[in-house]
Specification:
Elements: E1 2-3, E2 6-7, H1 8-24, H2 28-32, E3 41-43, E4 49-51, E5 69-71, H3 85-93, H4 99-102, E6 108-111, E7 122-127, H5 134-137, E8 146-148, E9 155-157, E10 160-165, E11 171-176, H6 190-201, E12 215-216, E13 219-220, E14 222-227, E15 230-234, H7 242-247, H8 255-259, H9 270-273, H10 278-281, H11 283-292, H12 298-305, E16 320-324, E17 330-335, E18 341-343, E19 354-359, H13 363-371, E20 377-378, H14 387-397, E21 399-403, E22 413-416, H15 424-430, H16 433-441, H17 445-452, E23 458-459, H18 475-478, H19 485-494, E24 516-523, H20 529-541, E25 546-553, H21 554-562, E26 568-571, H22 598-605, H23 617-629, H24 634-650, E27 654-655, E28 658-659, E29 667-671, E30 674-675, E31 699-700
Parallel strand pairs: 6-18, 7-19, 24-25, 24-26
Antiparallel strand pairs: 1-2, 3-4, 5-6, 8-9, 10-11, 11-15, 12-13, 14-15, 16-17, 17-19, 20-29, 21-29, 22-26, 22-27, 23-28, 30-31
Helix pairs in contact: 11-12, 16-19, 23-24
Length: 702
């Protein structure tokens, strides 16, 4: 039997060759335990670390989980401070105030992993174009209010000095750092939070679809200024999850760098935006300024202005600030002289002067640069299939390799658009659970695993790791996710798709020819989504389904999803390790980004005032559980999330392929001259990998 272009015998021989190659490269143990769980540390219900079975305890490429420490005991804070030589020169010239005046009263103090570093140097990386904003966002995510420690299990202060959850769970108090300043030297205070809440979040033109994170059980909360350095979120019902949301990769907690282009993030530089906002200068003047800048209206202009990777003039809290934007051949970020963090010796961070990302037109070019030693540290876009080549060239390129097994249930997930309105026939079948089940049963995941994951991934449904408190049970890994073309064909016949053309493809029920499903694959991201889709399309041919693969650049594909134009989008289901901290790739809840039905996400976020109500009972039930879970504490939430995953898997709301591997941002190429780089880091969406490793402490040893 021939499937996907190679026979079963050919694939078996290829499997042996790959295993031998991996073993020869020193990672045979890693490859030999593909069925083992992929991450070694997860958060238990009481917040402690749960040790799971490691993917490969024998492999030197999967090191011990480690990272820097955020010091919260003020008695250990340094009492004097130093700065980078380039900034010291600016102080001498009078262009900058002394470092003591640029730091907050209580800066964030970090104990570096290996030791205090030294200043200087440029971090070289590759990026794939304007749609690759997360490449820099993740490095600079310490503009968030709260964060996670390097284990991904404990909430830590970030730009906020501290936080408190009231006894009744209804009020969350955030304490800001006195004396903290934006990158332009202006004070960062509670007024910057209140500006966002009053003038952006509450403005229907700027925010027509508000994030549901600002509500609990459908009842919206409010933001209150207590004093210049204290704000509160006040909710009508208990919202114990909200602390985690402020630390997560969420609309309210992800920070300005990550979510500013959506006008989310919870804060904005009020002093800067008052020059462009109609409340302060009038609608006519705001429109005039926008048109002079090349924008049709002031709303689009403000969205551009709040995109840090495009607007070098934007005041930021990030450790590096954009000086050459992402829509140029080199995206350049240079140190922020007002960054709020120091090491234990009092040295203002970051150590590295700048980050220079050079455009790579495709993944192949990015990987070839890394192999040649032209990249200093990168895991994003590094191809798991090239591990043997990386190892072969490591000495010549002056680098070494570390693997960070991911916590994504499926690295390449087929997301159905459950609100697609471009073709009634296609939507009809997407709404049919047996159609979705048939497509899932038609995928031979072992072939995908061998071809794209070197056999080290875990095939199955897009559910969390076995050791997670949200894991629904072992039987759900394979539920409707085994390869069974016979059952798939029977299901398609059962629902009435019995007529076929001369080539064996099933015909539409409306008499308009062959049933064709469009699958959108994003180019230049993580793994080869387009080739994965092409092989799946060949596998679906066996069950009579025509799949047309449309490969597109990331920003174009994502914009089409927002416009409700995609049918099936293939992307990771990052965030599956904890739905509450990044649900958008598992549930249609976030109107800022949704592959699974943007109109359903608008309906959910607006409380039914906008968008389209889901008709699928499984989706409705999952959304009901998700909304109600926010008011519950961790132990009760766990069972509710397990129920959500059972609904999603049993009804194949999305199709999983292979996951729990290093394929997505887990193949890390590291220059030997870089210090304070962990042997292993948590590879999880809520950790904003690599940011919990504190890139501000990385430095060149030589």
């Amino acid at each position: 039997m021939r499937t996907g272009g190679c026979t079963m015998v050919e694939r078996s021989e290829e499997h042996l060759t790959r295993r031998q190659t991996l073993a020869g490269a020193g990672i045979g143990a890693f490859a030999a335990v593909a069925g083992e769980p992929a991450i070694t540390a997860l958060m238990s219900l009481d917040g402690s670390v749960v040790e799971a079975s490691p993917l490969s305890p024998q492999s030197a490429l999967v090191g011990p989980l480690e990272g820097p420490t955020v010091i919260t005991d003020k008695s250990q804070y340094p009492t004097s401070f130093s700065e980078a030589p380039s900034l010291a020169d600016l102080v001498k010239s009078g262009a900058l105030p002394p470092v003591e005046q640029r730091l907050p009263k209580n800066p964030m103090v970090i104990k570096p992993l290996q030791g205090v570093g030294k200043y200087g140097g440029t971090w070289r990386r590759a990026f794939t174009g304007p749609g690759d904003g997360e490449n820099g966002n993740r490095i600079c995510s310490t503009d968030k209010p709260l964060f996670w420690d390097f284990t991904g299990t404990k909430v830590m202060p970030c730009h906020a000095e501290g936080y408190d959850l009231s006894a009744d769970g209804k009020t969350i108090t955030l304490s800001l750092r006195e004396g903290h300043r934006w990158s332009d030297g202006e004070p960062f205070t509670a007024d910057d939070y209140m500006f966002w809440f009053n003038e952006v979040f509450s403005n229907k033109e700027l925010m027509p679809s508000q994030t549901p994170e600002m509500s609990v059980n459908g009842k919206q909360g409010k933001m209150v200024k207590v004093n210049d350095y204290t704000i509160q979120w006040v909710f009508p019902e208990p919202y114990p999850l909200f602390v985690d949301i402020l630390a997560g990769s969420t609309a309210l907690g992800a920070g300005q760098a990550t979510r500013g282009d959506e006008l989310n993030g919870s804060f904005m530089p009020a002093h800067y935006f008052k020059k462009f906002h109609p409340t302060f200068i009038g609608a006519d003047e705001a429109t005039k300024i926008a048109k002079e800048a090349g924008y049709d209206n002031w709303v689009l202009h403000i969205k551009f202005l709040n995109t840090w990777r495009l607007n070098p003039d934007l005041p930021v809290l990030t450790p590096w600030r954009t000086t050459s934007p992402i829509n140029t051949p080199q995206w350049v970020m240079e140190r922020n002289p007002y960054y709020y963090s120091v090491d234990t010796a009092g040295n203002q961070l970051p150590y590295l002067d700048k980050i220079v990302m050079t455009l790579a037109e495709n993944l192949e070019i990015a990987n070839l640069r890394a192999i040649a030693g032209e990249i200093d540290l990168q895991s994003r876009h590094m191809d798991i299939a090239k591990i043997p080549v990386f190892l072969e060239n490591a000495a010549r390129g002056g680098y070494h390799l570390q693997l960070d097994p991911g916590s994504y249930g499926s690295d390449a997930t087929f997301h159905f658009n459950h609100s697609f309105d471009g073709d009634a026939e296609v939507l009809k079948w997407f709404k049919n659970v047996d159609f979705r089940r048939a497509l899932s049963l038609g995928i031979e995941r072992e072939q995908l695993n061998e071809t794209f994951w070197l056999g080290v991934g875990t095939p199955g449904a897009p559910i969390p790791e076995d050791a997670s408190p949200y894991f629904p049970g072992a039987e759900w890994r394979s539920k409707w996710h085994a390869h069974d073309p016979k059952q798939a064909n029977a299901l398609l016949d059962k629902i009435g798709l019995t007529q076929k053309d001369a080539d064996g493809y099933r015909l539409r029920s409306d008499g308009k020819g062959r049933l064709r499903i469009e699958v959108t694959a994003v180019l230049g991201s993580f793994i080869d989504f387009a080739r994965i889709c092409e092989i799946v399309a060949q596998q679906w041919k066996v069950i009579g389904i025509q799949a047309d693969v449309l490969a597109q650049e990331r920003s174009l594909a994502f914009n089409r999803a927002l416009a409700n134009e995609t049918q099936i989008m293939v992307w990771a289901n990052d965030g599956s390790e904890n739905l509450f901290l990044f649900p958008r790739h598992a549930l249609p809840v976030d109107p800022a980004q949704c592959f699974m039905g943007i109109n359903i996400a608008k309906w959910y976020a607006s409380g039914g005032k906008q968008g389209t109500e889901p008709t699928d009972p499984a989706i409705r039930k999952a959304l009901e559980i998700f909304r109600s879970a926010a008011s519950k504490y961790a132990d009760e939430r766990a069972g509710m999330v397990q129920e959500i995953w059972k609904l999603l898997v049993d009804n194949v709301v999305s199709i999983g392929t292979v996951g729990l591997s290093p394929a997505v941002m887990g193949v890390r190429v590291i220059k030997n001259s870089l210090g304070n780089v962990p042997a292993r880091q948590m590879n999880a969406q809520h950790c904003r990998t690599p940011c919990t490793s504190m890139p501000t402490t990385f430095y060149y040893t030589a």
